[in-house]
Amino acid sequence: MEKENIAVGLDIGTTKIVAMIGKKNEYGKLEILGVGKSKSLGVARGVVNNITQTIQSIQQAIQEAENNSGYKIKDVVVGIAGQHIRSIQHTDYISRSNPEEVIGGNDIQLLIDQVNKLAMLPGEEIIHVLPQEFKIDGQTEIKEPIGMYGGRLESSFHVVVGQASSIRNVGRCIQSSGIELSGLTLEPLASSDAVLSQEEKEAGVALIDIGGGTTDLAIFKDGIIRHTAVIPFGGNVITDDIKEGCSIIEKQAELLKVKFGSAWPGENKDNEIVSIPGLRGREPKEISLKNLSKIIHARVVEIIEQVFTEIKAYGHEDPRKKLIAGIVLTGGGAQLQHIKQLVEYITGMDTRIGYPNEHLAGNSDEEISSPLYATAVGLVMNSIENQTQSAVRMDVIEAPKAPVYRQPVVAVQPESEEVDTIVEQEVRDFAKKEESTENKIRRSFFDRYVDKIKDFLDNAE
Question: CATH second-level architecture of 86-163+434-460?
Answer without folding.
Answer: 2-Layer Sandwich (3.30)
